[in-house]
Design a protein that fits this description.
Blueprint (H helix, E strand, L loop, with lengths): L17 H26 L2 E2 L35 E12 L6 E5 L8 E3 L17 E8 L9 E9 L9 E3 L1 E9 L12 H9 L5 H8 L4 E3 L5 E8 L2 H4 L4 H14 L9 E5 L5 H4 L3 E5 L3 E4 L9 H10 L7 E2 L2 E2 L16 H7 L6 E3 L10 E6 L10 E3 L10 E8 L15 E8 H4 L11 E6 L4 E4 L4 E9 L4 E8 L340 E4 L4 E3 L6 E2 L12 E5 L14 E5 L2 E5 L4 E6 L4 E3 L16 E9 L8 E5 L9 E5 L2 E6 L3 E2 L3 E2 L12 E7 L5 E8 L2 E10 L11 E2 L11 E10 L5 H12 L24 E4 L4 E3 L6 E2 L12 E5 L14 E5 L2 E5 L4 E6 L4 E3 L16 E9 L8 E5 L9 E5 L2 E6 L3 E2 L3 E2 L12 E7 L5 E8 L2 E10 L11 E2 L11 E10 L5 H12 L10
Parallel strand pairs: 1-2, 7-9, 8-10, 8-11, 11-13, 14-21, 16-18, 27-30, 46-49
Antiparallel strand pairs: 2-3, 2-5, 2-12, 3-4, 5-6, 12-13, 14-15, 17-24, 18-19, 19-20, 20-21, 22-23, 23-24, 25-43, 26-28, 28-29, 29-32, 30-31, 31-43, 32-42, 33-39, 33-43, 34-35, 34-42, 35-36, 36-37, 36-38, 39-40, 40-41, 44-62, 45-47, 47-48, 48-51, 49-50, 50-62, 51-61, 52-58, 52-62, 53-54, 53-61, ...
């Protein structure tokens, strides 16, 4: 046997020995070197650049030349045997281990990419180029067949990286499950199960669609209807099995799907699930580009079936890097961006725009040596106010990093949070230079520092910061955080200002099912709750009372000497002495004192309740979010009420009678402080308890010992005596209390009840009048939420009034709605159907009558009278409380007092209502708010009772959603999503959900603006049941009373179009003193001319930023610093187009709304203004190469059109022009890199469009694409001008629809106005274009065209 290291030899071999073979290889290499040198000398070895539709100039510096920070870098010497190629594309970073890799993608507009040896450095500035930038460079390759650059030189930035949109985005995802077929290179391999992959995205409790929705607070969602999972088989090759070439995998998979007729370009993101057996070759579980649209995963539980890995790779596409800990990448287990399976960490949420800080602290907002207290909600309760961001600029030159504090709790998207982070204050830090600006160049190294338990006290001398962690409230998912910054040491922070260590805590149990608002959990042992009350009783006397609620200003330290505190003010209050006594509540009516046992709680007020004396009670949760976890054994919480009552403190003593004047002090111990105010009180002496967080409507916690409460009721209950009496019979008001044991929990509601502390003392019942005293024996409380419980009392079924056979209008100008606008379900109009109680006067316009003790308005009948609706009786609302009839010269309305008045129906909606989960509906409310709408006020509810919220619709001034326990939220619209409705002004508010429930649109019309405002939100199916129709109050929470008037309520079983809503606004314009909508003569296009793809009309869908004036005809307002025009919505409103959302253009730059007597338009400034869509065109667009289409543009040019000005583009981005449509004033073409130009129309082929004149410009490509026609119509000529050009097939993809600028070249800005844009998926005939010109002739002052 020959030695293992010897070569076999033959006697006639010329070079038999191994050293001779090495010499032979050297000679061959030398020969190749000489040949390559000769070739390079002949042709420069420079490869040609792929063709581009627009002639490209040689590489040039960026538009804004960067400052030369150092001399240009010397370019490396390249061996002559290496081939060079000039390329340009988009720079991408991939997060491969152990070091990342750099690529240049979309090479010269194609889908190919080149791997780079390192991050490119700009040859002009000497700075590393950020991922996402458009770059040109010279790549040196070892051979002509490879796409790997062994070296690069002459890198230049063509366009700097732009921020990636991460909010209000809908992902259209194509998932390709790949397997390998046998080839000459390797054997076949299977892949993942397609059904299981689809279920991972769409089904089950951990599905990725819900995971992204929860973590992003609805700001990044998957389009369920357009999420496609397909299998594909590609040939096996060593490129795949040995090299793990993911770009080759993607290229082969896309080729197979294109051959199968699947259009890859119609999806925003591509996911590739690799074949089996590639873990070793690839060396990773998942891979994503920064930025990018593609991700790759292994086909197992560590790859595509791991929700943390899937989120991490997809978020790489949006610019997020890995999480760090102790200098080690991936080591942050608290986030999916590390090794976790939970939502991103606080700095990552902020970077994505998915959550905002409760406060940002720096040297300006954070005074020295002053403790500041904050009640911090958990991150899952976002998006607002769920982290503390610290920018320690007081460190001077040592300021290097920002610090983030956040409470993490195992709920919602964080339900798989690792226990070591649960219920603790998580601390991260991040590079400040990157964190303080939006665009980051490289990894900011977001690093986990610590997870602090409640009760921790830590000094971070590197930040000169002292941090104390207070009580964690597992019921409301909040924690108390106290901070002080110092110069040299802790002695600067006054010791007696520190809070005491919090009480012990236990992490929350697994979450309850989602609910509109997080109910507070329960604490042992069960005890009765405080009932809500419009007129709260005064507080009780000592022992020590809780501090006043926290506020923006830090509290001052306390001094040991007892003395009554000063009232809270913008400055810290004077110190209080131990033991402090409870504050006096503000109240218009004093309650009668009660004999001991304990006295009633403090009254509700707009401020959050103060905490209790020991043990400390947790703060109330923010809303609206999923329910907080509960900790056994449960005790029922307080039922929510219109305003949060203050907590009680033991032992009981008679309260001070509240009054409008400051109350007189009580007997010692020290007198109570003044009532709470928007400024924070100073902390109280030990034992202190944490303050409750600000919350719109939480009730207060209770204090020991337990005793029976009075039931929640709008009227005062009669006194009880021991033993407890049986409950009162059901009535329109909440029932009286029942005898023990405790009753089942209340269902969740938009406003969570506040937590209880064991054991609570009995409260006074809510009542406008002083409550009667209670007796000691406990009676069962109202049940806690969030699970729908069995009701504690018989269902709420008031006796209906008898319907009148006919109704007589009371408003002189009343008219019945036209047939096309008559609603199928509810038609309530206060001009015709209001029944007023005999003997009570009607409130006339301008009068302010004293509200009667009983309702003037008794009922509101449907304007259809006795006519049947779908086989059921028309709706009848019965009223209770102080409701008055209001009339003026033009309209009638019901006036709601904001305290007691509401209307309810004891019957279901007519059977014309469709309660299926995907059913269309429209609800219209016309009224006016007297009280600012930032305070929650109920417009209407459906299927929301005093006992449950099963399949409900909840619509109040700050929050709107349907909730189905089986399907979740249908949508969730919060006051932060759009401007608040105005006060003291008639306003039309409308919700429109189209069939399929994939979206919902919200509309508003009032005299502030002469157009229909609208907002569109994503949605999902959710059933809404037809029972318990209520207006003016939330009967579940016994609060959120409307303070205002209601005149009209309409409910349809279909989705009204935008034009129908404009028509509705016009119909009511005279009655409510509105201007007629913009473009009074606006009409909907006739059916044969309505476009299938895009219908943008500036008369109906332009959204203008609040507070910016509309530019009138002839005026030349100074352009604002931000856009006056913010968006342009499709005139079809929420109606579905081909199963997807209608187009919405978002605007940037100085874009103004223009109006004259007949039309509306958007004015483009020629310098900064353009509109773009972040979504694809609807799926009704056909992007096949031979598909027909028509595009119509109506506008006017201010600047001569010989200068290029962009009308519109499709699939032309700031990085590529793959399968694009390019339409500007001097040039028009579609370009497909695979098929070439579809046509090429230049300004020399036809006359230029006129200036300062409304003109219609249209392109028509017939099926087959063998030709294209161009049409023009304006007042210069009374006929339709046309030109015809030859053409050939060319695909046009539906992404990146843009008007007014060329975002690839950052130029060709339109100087003019645009009024109408229409896109059809068919070729309009000449006669249809003549008809279209005639339709718009009056509006644009054209002569009617001749045929």
């Amino acid at each position: 046997m020959a030695p293992a290291n010897c070569d076999s030899r033959w006697t006639f071999e010329l070079l038999p020995y191994t050293w001779q073979r090495r010499f032979q290889r050297f000679l061959l290499s030398l020969l190749l070197y000489l040949v390559a040198t000769s070739l390079l000398a002949l042709d420069g070895a420079s490869a040609a650049t792929p063709p581009s539709p627009v002639p490209q100039s040689p590489p040039a510096p960026t538009l804004t030349n960067p400052l030369l920070l150092r001399s240009p870098l010397p370019q490396p010497m390249i061996a002559a045997s290496v081939l060079s190629i000039y390329i340009q594309g988009k720079l991408q970073y991939r997060t491969t281990k152990p070091i990342g890799s750099w690529l240049l993608t979309s090479i010269n507009g194609s889908r190919s990419s080149y791997t780079l040896p390192n991050q490119p450095v700009d040859v002009l500035s000497g700075q590393e180029i950020s991922p996402g930038s458009s770059v040109s460079l010279t790549c040196f390759r070892p051979n002509a067949s490879t796409t790997m650059c062994s070296n690069i030189t002459n890198a230049r930035i063509i366009q700097a990286a732009m921020p990636t949109q991460t909010t209000n985005i809908t992902l259209r995802v194509l998932v390709m499950v790949i397997s390998l077929s046998k080839s000459s290179e390797c054997r076949s391999r299977g892949g993942a199960n397609v059904a299981q992959v689809q279920d991972a995205f769409l089904q089950g409790p951990n599905n990725y669609v819900n995971f992204f929705r929860n973590c992003s607070n609805g700001m990044m969602v998957f389009d369920r209807n357009n999420l496609k999972v397909v299998s594909t088989v590609i040939p096996c090759s060593t490129n795949i099995t040995v090299d793990c070439n993911v770009d080759k995998i993607a290229e082969n998979a896309e080729f197979q799907l294109l051959a199968a007729g699947i259009e890859i370009g119609s999806y925003s993101h591509s996911v590739y699930v690799l074949p089996d057996g590639l873990a070793t070759a690839c060396g990773w579980l998942g891979l994503g580009g920064i930025p990018g649209t593609k991700t790759w995963f292994l086909p197992d539980t560590l790859g595509i079936f791991s929700k943390g890995v899937v989120m991490q790779e997809i978020l790489h596409n949006f610019g997020l890097y890995h999480g760090w800990k102790d200098g080690v990448e991936y080591n942050d287990n608290s986030t999916a961006m590390g090794n976790g399976h939970s939502c991103p960490s606080a700095p990552e949420l902020w970077r994505l725009g998915w959550a905002t800080p409760l406060v940002q602290l720096n040297s300006t907002s954070f005074p020295m040596a002053t403790y500041k207290n904050f009640t911090l909600p958990a991150t899952y309760l976002g998006p607002r106010g769920v982290m503390i961001k610290i920018q320690p600029d007081w460190l001077g030159e040592l300021y290097k990093t920002n610090m983030y504090l956040a409470l993490r709790v195992k709920m919602a998207g964080d339900k798989d949070l690792i226990e070591q982070f649960n219920g603790k204050l998580n601390i991260h830090e991040v590079n400040k230079s990157m964190d303080n600006r939006f665009l980051i160049d490289v990894d900011p190294k977001i690093s986990f520092i610590a997870a602090l338990d409640p009760g921790s006290s830590v000094s971070y001398f590197r930040y000169k910061l002292h941090l104390l962690v207070g009580a964690f409230d597992s019921k409301t998912s909040t924690i108390i955080v106290t901070l002080c910054r110092f110069v040299t040491g802790l002695n600067e922070c006054t010791a007696d200002a520190l809070p005491m260590p919090p009480s012990s805590w236990s992490p929350p149990p697994p979450p309850n099912p989602p609910s509109p608002m997080p109910p507070s959990p329960q604490s042992p042992p069960p005890s009765p709750p405080n009932p809500p009350s419009p007129m709260p009783p005064s507080p009780q006397s000592p022992p020590p009372s809780p501090p006043n609620p926290p506020s923006p200003m830090p509290p001052s330290p306390q001094s040991p000497a007892p003395s009554p505190p000063n009232p809270p003010s913008p400055m810290p209050p004077s110190p209080q002495s131990p033991p402090p006594s409870p504050p006096n509540p503000p109240s218009p009516m004093p309650p009668s004192p009660q004999s001991p046992p304990p006295s009633p709680p403090n009254p509700p007020s707009p401020m959050p309740p103060s905490p209790q004396s020991p043990p400390p009670s947790p703060p109330n949760p923010p809303s609206p979010m999923p329910p907080s976890p509960q900790s056994p054994p449960p005790s029922p919480p307080n039922p929510p009420s219109p305003m949060p009552p203050s907590p009680q403190s033991p032992p009981p003593s008679p309260p001070n009678p509240p009054s409008p004047m400051p109350p007189s002090p009580q007997s010692p111990p020290p007198s109570p402080p003044n009532p709470p105010s928007p400024m924070p009180p100073s902390p109280q002496s030990p034992p202190p308890s944490p303050p409750n967080p600000p919350s719109p409507m939480p009730p207060s916690p209770q204090s020991p010992p337990p005793s029976p409460p009075n039931p929640p009721s709008l009227m005062p209950p009669s006194p009880q005596s021991p033993p407890p009496s049986p409950p009162n019979p059901p009535s329109p008001m909440p029932p009286s209390p029942q005898s023990p044991p405790p009753s089942p929990p209340n269902p969740p509601s938009p406003m969570p009840p506040s937590p209880q502390s064991p054991p609570p003392s009995p409260p006074n019942p809510p009542s406008p009048m002083p409550p009667s005293p209670q007796s000691p024996p406990p009676s069962p409380p109202n049940p806690p939420s969030p699970m729908p419980p069995s009701p504690p009392s018989p269902p709420f079924k008031p006796k209906p009034l008898t319907l009148l056979p006919s109704l007589t209008p009371t408003c002189p100008g009343y008219q019945q709605l036209p047939n096309n606008l008559r609603p199928e379900v509810v038609n309530l109009d206060a001009c015709i159907g209001v029944i007023v109680q005999s003997g009570l006067d009607v409130a006339q316009a301008g009068a302010s009558p004293t509200p009667p003790t009983t309702s003037a308005v008794r009922a509101w009948l449907d304007a259809e009278g006795g006519n049947s609706k779908g086989g059921g009786l028309p709706v009848q609302l019965n009223f209770t409380g102080n409701c008055l009839m209001y009339q003026d010269a033009s309209t009638g309305a019901i006036a709601f007092d904001g305290n007691t008045c509401f209307g309810y129906s004891s019957q279901d909606l007519p059977s014309s209502w469709n309660n299926s989960a995907e059913a269309a509906f429209t609800a219209v409310w016309i009224g006016s708010f007297t009280l600012n709408t930032s305070k929650p006020q109920m417009l209407m509810t459906l299927s929301r009772t005093k006992n449950d919220y099963y399949k409900e619709l909840y619509w109040e001034s700050t929050l709107l959603f349907p909730y189905d326990p089986e399907l979740g939220f249908g949508f969730n619209i919060q006051s932060s999503n759009m401007p608040a409705a105005p006060t003291d002004m008639w306003t039309l508010e409308a919700i429109v959900r189209p069939s399929g429930a994939a979206s919902v649109s919200y509309y508003r019309y009032n005299k502030q603006r002469p157009y229909l405002q609208s907002w569109i939100f994503s949605g999902q199916p959710s059933k809404i049941f037809p029972d318990s129709f209520t207006i003016g109050a939330d009967i579940l929470d016994n609060g959120k009373f409307l303070n205002g008037k209601v005149s009209v309520i309409l409910i349809y079983n279909r989705a009204l179009s935008r034009s129908e809503l404009v028509q509705l606004s016009s119909f009511y314009a005279n009655r409510f003193s509105w201007s007629k909508p913009t473009c009074p003569g606006y009409q909907q296009l006739p059916n044969n001319l309505r476009p299938e793809v895009v219908n943008l009309d500036a008369c109906i869908g332009v959204i203008v930023q609040s507070g910016l004036d509309v530019a009138q005809a002839g005026a030349s307002p100074t352009p604002p610093t931000t856009s006056a025009v913010r968006a342009w919505l499709d005139a079809e409103g929420g109606n579905s187009k081909g199963g997807s959302l209608p187009v919405q253009l978002n605007f940037t730059g100085n874009c103004l709304m223009y109006q004259d007597a007949s039309t509306g338009a958007i004015a483009f400034d020629g310098n900064t203004c353009f509109g773009y869509s972040s979504q694809d065109l609807p799926s009704s667009w056909n992007n096949s190469a031979e598909a027909a289409f028509t595009a119509v543009w109506i506008g006017s040019f201010t600047l001569n059109t010989s200068k290029p000005q962009m009308l519109m583009t499709l699939s032309r981005t700031k990085n590529d022009y793959y399968k694009e449509l390019y339409w500007e004033s001097t040039l028009l073409f579609p370009y497909d890199p695979e098929l070439g130009f579809g046509f090429n129309i230049q300004s020399s082929n036809m006359p230029a469009a006129p200036t300062d004149m409304w003109t219609l410009e249209a392109i028509v490509r017939p099926s087959g694409a063998a030709s294209v026609s161009y049409y023009r119509y304006n007042k210069q000529r009374p006929y339709l001008q046309s030109w015809i050009f030859s053409g050939q097939p060319s695909k046009i993809f539906p992404d990146s629809f843009t008007i007014g600028a060329d975002i690839l070249d950052n130029g060709k800005f339109l100087n003019g106005k645009v009024s109408v844009i229409l896109i059809y998926n068919r070729a309009l005939s000449r006669s249809e274009l003549v008809q279209l010109s005639s339709f718009y002739a009056n509006r644009f002052s054209w002569s009617k065209p001749s045929t």
